[in-house]
Structure formats: C-alpha cells, structure tokens
Amino acid sequence: MHALMQRAVAGHSYGIRQTDPTDSERVTRQLSAEFPALTPSDVERCVSDTWICAQHLGVAVTARLVERIARERLLGVVHSVPPSGRRPPG
Question: Predicted confidence band at 82 (pLDDT cuts at 50, 70, 90)?
Fold first, then answer.
C-alpha cells in the first residue's frame, strides 16, 4: 500500500508517495544520528526534499535511494566553507 505525505514548499503542496509511511521517518532518524551537528528539522527537510526531487525526476524512489542521496547532500552541508571563506571560531 502507498502512503501520501504532504509537503508545502513556497506556497505549493507536494505529495510524497511512499511504500511505507515510516520510510522517511526511519531515514530521518538514521541520518540525524549520523549528523549530530545538524538539527533534526534540517535533516527532515533534506530527506523530504530529496524524496520530492527523485519523484519529480521520475526515478523509482526507495528509502535506500533517498537515504544515500540525502546523506551526500548533508555531507556537503557539514563540510561546506562559509561564503566569506573564513571559518567561524570554534
């Protein structure tokens, strides 16, 4: 059975079709544990955005695929340098 999760982005509502409604929750929990420097809401947003992007591209979306892509995106966020090129103190 497919579940449909709604996501509102910039005034538009997008549906995320999932084979299991807990797929995105499981992926979010897993990635939140791997990226403690990021807030759970940031990780959740990345997971849902990744799911929507994959659907939009017509890819066969699975929790494993979303987890792998979202992990790469989150690694980029964690390893990014601020636009000024200077690292914040700490």
Answer: confident
pLDDT at 4 (0 to 100): 46
Q: What span, in angstroms and rounded, lies between the C-alpha atoms of 13 and 64? A: 24
> Taking Cα atoms as reference points, which of 46, 42, 45, 54 lies closest to residue 72?
46
User: Domain of 33?
Assistant: 3-78
Q: Which pLDDT value is given to residue 3?
A: 44
User: Structural domain tally of the chain?
Assistant: 1
Does residue 18 sit within a domain? yes
Q: What is the pTM of this model?
A: 0.70
CB 51 within 8 A of CB 16: yes
* DSSP letters for 28-48: HHHHHHH-TTS-HHHHHHHHH
Residue 14 Cα to chain centre, angstroms: 14
pLDDT at residue 59 is higher than 80: yes
